[in-house]
Amino acid sequence: MTSLQSESGAASRVANEIRGWIVKGELQPGAKLAEERMRAQLAVSRSTLREGFQLLVRERLVVHVLSSGFFVRRLAREDIADLMATREVVECGALWTVNEVEASSLDRVETAVVAGQTARESEHWQAVAAASIEFHRGLVALAGSARLDYLIAQILAEFRLAYGYMEDPLAFHVTYLRKHETILKLLKENAAHAAAEYLRSYLTSSRIDLLVRVPE
């Protein structure tokens, strides 16, 4: 492996780590990515850290403000609307490709449903949000497409930033946890297309609920 390949791999690992913190809610929209602290935490050089930041800039998770540094991105109202429209195309489209649901393929989806319920009981909304993202990734994984898996991972990581506008995130998520249970039930009944239509309605409601929380 060349030194260039090694540096590129290290930058990808940096991006993966920071992306994970964003998805878990450990880094909120608007948070500054303090370079010295992150260099120490991730044990990487300044150039590798900045290359990792640039990967996240291209994924629209981070912004660079000249003379100020790198920050977790804040989504605008139009970003959220567009992300929801994109999610509908990808998630519902993925379920429509599924003609038969194997019981073993639902393990990831069911695990996410249980994780969301457990987090709700402890009123840990960040964990509820992370479980919700895993649930939707699990739905798309049923299509068996590595490209769709990669695409939805990027979309949902960016969408996670929308929660920064919420004053009542737990109450928001509890409504949709119940809908996760309904979708899982439909999939267990081998009704993927019915699940896709139910999900379409779910995403429409979610878009409306989110946008009323976002300033004009």
Automatic annotation (TrEMBL):
Residue ranges of domain HTH gntR-type in the record: 8-75
InterPro entries named among the record's database cross-references: GntR_C (IPR011711), TF_FadR/GntR_C (IPR008920), Tscrpt_reg_HTH_GntR (IPR000524), WH-like_DNA-bd_sf (IPR036388), WH_DNA-bd_sf (IPR036390)
Keywords, ordered alphabetically: DNA-binding, Transcription, Transcription regulation
Transmembrane parts of this sequence: none
Gene3D superfamilies: GntR ligand-binding domain-like, Winged helix-like DNA-binding domain superfamily/Winged helix DNA-binding domain
Top-level lineage group: Bacteria
Classification via Pfam families: FCD, GntR
Organism: Brevibacterium daeguense
PANTHER family, per database record: GNTR FAMILY REGULATORY PROTEIN, TRANSCRIPTIONAL REGULATOR, GNTR FAMILY
Protein name as catalogued: GntR family transcriptional regulator
